[in-house]
Amino acid sequence: DIQSVDLGLAGNRYFHYVVTGGAMSSISHTTSQQLKNWFGQSAYYLSVIPQLSKMLEGMNIRIESNELETEEDALLYFVARSPLVAGFAHLIPSAKVNDGMLHVLILRKTNLLSSAALFRDILHGTHIGRSDVLYFQTKRVYIKPFNTLSAQVGIDGELFDGAPRSIEVVPNGQLFLVPKKQFIVA
């Protein structure tokens, strides 16, 4: 059988699963490999501690789509096609790889206590609907950072300077050959 999944297009780069922006988008790239080997996924949480004050400064971004136009002070943004993002199983619970939509999640800048509660809710998958979370679905979104520090983005785990401003979905952009029967090898 042949099955198709959507792709994303960020500027001139295709992506399979996510575009991230904000101070936290660099965490996976600044976490040492030795720390990752010792602590696994917990290494990322440990890497956040020395950078916490910078992350909580946030960034000012402009968001434009057919569904929404706004400016936000954000800690982090995700434009995803998958519910599993950055190791969080339910970051974007309604996302599907073949629904023809981009799922945009903005974590708004708040105080330290609210941010801690937000990350607790993210771990439990109960963050959608909070006042410090903006979530919507679209086929195309334009995200403009207002300073150069916000212009660094992660695209499918790779870090890039110069944020792509236009991000769109490419419905059925990739085909996969999937076996009709799965064989069990003993």
Characterization of this structure:
By secondary structure, this protein is α+β, with helices and mostly antiparallel strands. The protein contains four helices and eleven strands. Strands 1, 2, 3, 4, 5, 6, 7, 8, 9, 10 and 11 form an eleven-stranded antiparallel sheet that branches. A hairpin with a 4-residue loop joins strand 4 and strand 5. The longest helix is centred in the N-terminal third of the chain and has 14 residues. The chain is globular and about 50 Å long. The mean pLDDT is 81.
Q: Say how many strands there are.
A: 11
How many helices in DSSP terms? 4
Stretches with pLDDT under 50, minimum 5 residues: none
Task: Determine the structural class based on helices, strands and strand pairing.
Answer: alpha+beta
End-to-end gap? 25 Å
Radius of gyration: 17 Å
What is the beta-strand fraction? 35-45%
Helix percentage range = 10-25%
The major beta sheet can be summarized as: 11 strands, antiparallel
Descriptive tags:
single chain, 186 residues, alpha+beta, eleven-stranded antiparallel β-sheet, 4 helices
